[in-house]
């Protein structure tokens, strides 16, 4: 389906356009009813006038007492009357009918008029009959005036209702399209806000204030307050992480100094080791929170540049290969010889991949596979494992900061690894999806294509 067809269908389904169509239908129906009522009234008046004329004609023939006299009068009237407008026929008793047409009597008393020397009118006739001088007198008048009235009203309908409907429909659609565009702007802004783009705003409306303008202004105020609150929370988080990192590092140094003065394998030394591990864990949490705040604040956007995604992935895999094998896991890589080229910050992409590898190592049992793949169309990478995976209803939650699955609370970690990956994906306008690997989890990171940047792909180079 073409874009134009989709746009037209979207326009027709919009509430303003439907309201315009309903308004046009109401206007058309009102005009049709008024014209129809006028036509029916005038038509009834014409029928009454024709019947009155016929009654007068019949009354004028009642002065004739004999069939011969009535036949003579009918013949004289017939010669002076156009049968296309008025018909007069007399059927004398036992004689030949006279008049400017012929009448055929049907069963049930119905009468059919057929042409005589001259043609009859095409509009039909309204007739009256009367028994006179022992015979049957028929007078009929053409329904041509009623047909002409019908043609007049049809023309009036075409030249009045047609332009009215077209003009009303045109103006209604123009106004509805303007309202539909404003509704689309509101929907687009709300969609951007729903995916985390808190800078989204509706453009100022130059039209006079109406309900849509008030809704748009409300959306902008809500977005501004949400952005300010989020920015304040981000700043507070960054400030806390920054301010506490130094004291924690000092505590770590003091604990290490204390540990050096304690005898090995003593209970105080064991407590010092546990305290040092907890401090290191707290330091790593604050470090990760600072990194997320810096990325979300756009501080890394200045270093964005085109780079070879495959090369970066291979370097990270080579770095992690020994430690993965030592942990009893199997790491594989499916990557083109060169490319694809994407636009981003290579060190951040490397950090995201490292977080995904460590996440897979941490949450899969010994002997599990970790499969890494790089794709060129669309450009992206994926990390899959055959571990327990993540339930579908939890996949959105694990991207939140400090969120951990119930079964993972006893394992090392702080719930910020995937949050950091999500922040890096957002910085690069990349889509991050968590999928079922049947079994296990597959994390897919897809980047927007770099114009003209896709390099030719070579053969796969699996690394084991």
UniProtKB/TrEMBL annotation:
SUPFAM superfamilies: ATPase domain of HSP90 chaperone/DNA topoisomerase II/histidine kinase, Homodimeric domain of signal transducing histidine kinase. Residues 239-451 form the Histidine kinase domain. It comes from Rhodovulum sulfidophilum. This is histidine kinase. Keywords: Kinase, Membrane, Phosphoprotein, Transferase, Transmembrane, Transmembrane helix, Two-component regulatory system. It is an enzyme of class 2 (transferase). Pfam families: HATPase_c, HisKA. Its EC number is 2.7.13.3. The chain crosses the membrane at residues 20-42, 153-176. It is found in: Membrane. Residues 177-231 form the HAMP domain. GO terms for molecular function: kinase activity. It catalyses: ATP + protein L-histidine = ADP + protein N-phospho-L-histidine. Its main location: membrane.
């Amino acid at each position: 389906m073409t874009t134009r067809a989709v746009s037209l269908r979207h326009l027709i389904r919009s509430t303003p356009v439907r309201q315009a169509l309903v308004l046009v239908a109401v206007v058309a129906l009102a005009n049709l009813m008024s014209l129809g009522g006028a036509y029916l009234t005038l038509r009834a008046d014409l029928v009454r006038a024709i019947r009155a004329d016929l009654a007068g004609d019949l009354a004028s023939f009642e002065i004739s007492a004999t069939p011969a006299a009535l036949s003579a009068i009918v013949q004289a009237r017939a010669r002076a009357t156009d049968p296309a407008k008025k018909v007069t026929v007399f059927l004398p008793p036992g004689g030949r009918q006279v008049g400017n047409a012929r009448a055929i009597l049907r069963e049930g008393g119905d009468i059919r008029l057929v042409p005589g020397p001259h043609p009859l009118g095409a509009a039909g006739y309204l007739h009256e009959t009367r028994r006179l001088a022992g015979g049957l007198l028929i007078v009929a008048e053409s329904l041509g005036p009623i047909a002409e009235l019908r043609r007049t009203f049809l023309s009036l309908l075409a030249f009045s209702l047609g332009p009215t409907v077209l003009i009303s429909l045109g103006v209604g659609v123009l106004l509805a399209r303007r309202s539909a565009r404003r509704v689309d702007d509101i929907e687009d802004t709300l969609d951007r806000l729903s995916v985390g783009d808190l800078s989204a705003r509706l453009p100022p409306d130059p039209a006079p204030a109406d309900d849509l303008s008030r809704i748009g202004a409300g959306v902008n105020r809500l977005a501004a307050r949400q952005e300010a609150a989020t920015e304040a929370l981000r700043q507070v988080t960054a400030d806390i992480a920054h301010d506490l990192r130094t004291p924690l590092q000092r505590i770590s140094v003091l604990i290490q100094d204390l540990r050096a003065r304690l005898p090995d394998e003593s209970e105080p030394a064991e407590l010092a080791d546990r305290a040092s591990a907890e401090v290191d864990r707290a330091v790593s949490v604050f470090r990760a929170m600072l990194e997320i705040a810096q990325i979300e604040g756009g501080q890394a956007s200045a270093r964005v540049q085109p780079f070879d995604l495959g090369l970066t992935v291979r370097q990270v895999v080579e770095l992690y290969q020994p430690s993965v094998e030592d942990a009893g896991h199997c790491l594989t890589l499916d990557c083109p010889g060169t490319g694809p080229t994407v636009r981003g910050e290579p060190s951040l992409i490397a950090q995201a991949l490292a977080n995904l590898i460590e996440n897979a190592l941490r949450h899969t049992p010994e002997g599990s596979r970790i499969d890494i793949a790089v794709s060129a169309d669309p450009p992206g990478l994926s990390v899959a494992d055959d571990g327990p995976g993540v339930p579908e209803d939890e996949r959105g939650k694990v991207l939140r900061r400090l969120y951990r699955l119930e079964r993972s609370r006893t394992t090392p970690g702080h719930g910020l690894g995937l949050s950091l990956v999500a922040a890096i994906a957002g910085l690069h306008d990349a889509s991050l999806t968590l999928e079922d690997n049947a079994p296990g989890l597959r994390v897919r990171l897809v980047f927007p294509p770099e114009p003209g940047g896709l390099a030719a792909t070579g053969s796969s180079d699996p690394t084991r």
